[in-house]
Amino acid sequence: MAARHRLDVWLKLVCVFKQRSDAAEACRSGHVRLNGNRAKPSSEPKENDVVEITGERYRKLVVIGLPEHSISKEVARSMYRDESPPPPPRDPFAPTLERERGAGRPTKKDRRDLERAKRG
Question: What is the distance between the alpha carbons of residues 60 and 15, in angstroms, rounded to a whole number?
């Protein structure tokens, strides 16, 4: 009998999410689709299934393999084919949200400027 695989476990084992709980939460909140349908964490991925992940960046993955246990990242990344569109190019003139190392604690004005830049 073949082992049963869960989608949240597969997403964690192939290094798409760092923790299974993060993968399960993404599934529950509707950010993960399996073959075009909204996926539950307990959905069973099979070979050649399409997993779409929305969020900060859209990703489209085709299942190639189903690992039984934790594996190295190099092997894990060979368990799916990434058909995601390339990320949009970064604007080199966009304001950065990083502060110089050793600049000390941000002032109230610095924090407001950072919040304003995060919101867009």
Answer: 14
pLDDT confidence band for 120 (50 / 70 / 90): low
Q: In the numeric block, which tokens belong to residue 50? A: 């399409």
Give the C-alpha separation, 27 to 25, whole Å.
5
Kindly provide the residue ranges of all beta strands, DSSP E only, lying in the chain, ordered along the sequence: 32-34, 37-38, 50-53, 59-63, 80-82
Strands 50-53 and 37-38, sheet pairing: unpaired
* Phi, psi of 25, rounded to the nearest 5 degrees: -65, -40
Mean pLDDT of 8-27: 94
Q: What angle do CA 16, 51, 24 make, to 5 degrees?
A: 55
Please write the tens of the pLDDT for every residue from 37-88.
Answer: 999 999 999 999 999 999 888 999 999 999 888 889 999 989 999 999 988 8
Alpha-carbon distance values, 57 to 52, 54, 68, 72, 87 (Å): 11, 6, 27, 24, 7
